[in-house]
Design a protein that fits this description.
alpha/beta; Transcription Regulator spoIIAA; 4-stranded mixed sheet; 4 strands
């Protein structure tokens, strides 16, 4: 996933596009570090727009869980919007859908 597929929109929403899979999750994690500075995790409400995700698997879900834990650890909150149905299904099967999208 190229950095241009991961960025911050004018309203502060973090946009994630492309695949979020075993093959791309480390690239996405690195892009997140580059685009979302440490201070952003402390914000009262950090929103990730996942509507541009083309494919996702359990590695992608694990990354969302890690982002949520980071935000909580730093005292912030994270919201995911536009989550693809397939990713919601994986979260449901894993028992984390309420925590992530509740």
């Amino acid at each position: 996933m190229a950095t241009e597929r991961f960025g911050i929109d004018g309203d502060g929403t973090v946009r994630v596009c492309g695949p979020l899979t075993f093959d791309t999750v480390e690239e996405v994690r690195a892009a997140a570090r580059a685009v979302v500075g440490p201070e952003r995790w402390r914000e009262e409400s950090l929103t990730f727009d996942l509507g541009g995700i083309e494919a996702a698997d359990s590695a992608g879900l694990a990354l969302l869980v890690a982002w949520q834990r980071t935000a909580r650890r730093e005292g912030g909150r994270i919201h995911f919007r536009g989550t693809p149905a397939a990713l919601r299904a994986i979260a449901g099967l894993s028992g984390v859908d309420g925590d992530l999208f509740g």
